[in-house]
Fold this sequence. Notes:
Blueprint: E1 3-8, E2 13-17, E3 33-36, E4 39-43, E5 48-51, H1 57-67, H2 75-85, H3 94-113, H4 118-121, E6 128-134, H5 142-154, E7 159-163, H6 169-183, E8 188-192, H7 199-209, E9 214-218, H8 226-235, E10 240-242, H9 248-257, E11 263-264, H10 268-271, H11 273-286, H12 297-304, E12 313-316, H13 324-333, E13 348-350, H14 363-372
Helix pairs in contact: 1-2, 2-3, 3-11, 5-6, 7-8, 9-11
Bound molecules: magnesium ion.
Amino acid sequence: MKVTDIRPFSEPLVGKVLSKPFFQDAINYGGDLVQWTFTEIRTDEAITGITPYAIAPDMLSLLKPAVLGEDPVNIQKIWDKMYWRSFNQGRKGAAIIAMSQIDIGLWDIIGKKLKTPVYKLLGGYRDRVPGYGSGGVLSLSNEQLVKEQMNWVEEGFKAVKMKVGRRDWREDIERIKAVREAVGNNVDLMVDANNGWSTSTAVRMAKRFEPYDVRWLEEPVVAEDYDGYTRVAASTDIPIAGGESEYTKFGFKELFLRRCIEICQADIGKVGGITEYMKVAGMAEAFNIPMCPHGIGLVSAHCVASTPNGTIVEFFDGNRYPNTTIRKFQEETGRWFMPHSIRPVKGWIDLPTVPGLGLDPDLEAIEEYRKKYKFKVEELEGRDTRSPFNNNMFLSL
Ligand SMILES: [Mg+2]
C-alpha cells in the first residue's frame, strides 16, 4: 500500500471570526474563530485515512514529499522523514502540528488495513476510559460556572475542570469555592491557568487553592519556563499538570527531568501525533507520571486506552457555551463524525470497535451545513488578552 495524496476534504469550513470574543476563554485566549474541517490521506488501495484537522497549506506542501509513495505501515520511517525534512522550520510549532495531524491519519489507515481499532494496535490496555468535563471559562458568571460544572456531574462525570485567572484573583477563590461546594467532595476538581501567571503569582495562587482539594493545577506559567514550573511544583501539594503546549519527546524530556509536572497532558495533535505520543507516554511511565492528554476526545481515548499510565480523557462540549451562534455551529459540526464518534455515558467512553480510529465524517451532514450556513470572516476587534507580566500581580491592571 502506498500513500497517493494528502488533501483537505474540501475547502476549510470557516465559521465566523466574531467582532468580539464570544467568551473570555482563559487568561491568554479569547474564543473568536470557529473553524473546523478535516484532512484525508488517500492510498492506492480503497482505504482513506481521516485526521480531524485542517493542515496549514504551507506545512502540508513542506511535508507531503516525505509521505507520498510510502507505505503507511512504515510509520516510524515516515515520522523521521517528516521531522528531518522540516528540521529548519520545525522542531516545535506549526511543522510538528502538521506532522501530528498526518501521523494521526496514517494510524487510521493502518487500523483500517489491519481491520483493528487503533487502541488495540497500540497495546489495548483497556476497552473503556473515563472522561472529565472541561470548561468553566473565565467569562461565565459564577452562577453560569456552577451550573455548567454541575451539568457534567449530573451527567455522571466524576471530574470537572474550570479556568482560573480572573483579573481580580479573589474572584478565582470565590469561584473555586462555589464549584467545590456545588459538586461536593466526591468529584475531582481541576483548574487551568493556561500559561497565564508569573512564577511567584502561580506559587501564591496554588497556596490559596490548597484548601479546596484541587486535583491539579494546569499550565500555571508559560510553557517554556521550565525553572518556573519546577519552583511552582515544589511549592505546593497540588499536583502540577502541563504539556498541552509542548512538542515532541525532546520537549517532554525537559518537563520530566526537571520535575516540572506530575501529570502529563501531551496533545496528540501537537506533540507529534500518535507515534510520538506513545514515546512520551513510555517516558512518562518511567517517571511515574500519568497521561491525561489534552483535547481531541476520540484520538485521545485511543491513546489513553492503550497504555498502563493512560488515565483520563478531556471532554469539551461547545453546546454549553451561552451563545446561540456558536451553539448552533457546534450542534451542526458535531454531527460530522457520526456514527462512531464518542459520547461519554455516565462519564465513561467505550472505545469504538471499528477498524482505525472510527472517525467517519457524515458527508450528508456536511453538505447540509454548507447550504444552511454561510458564515463570513469579519475583522477581529477588542481581543482581551493578557500576559504573565501583568496578570494577577496588581489589582489595578
Ligand atoms: Mg489546558
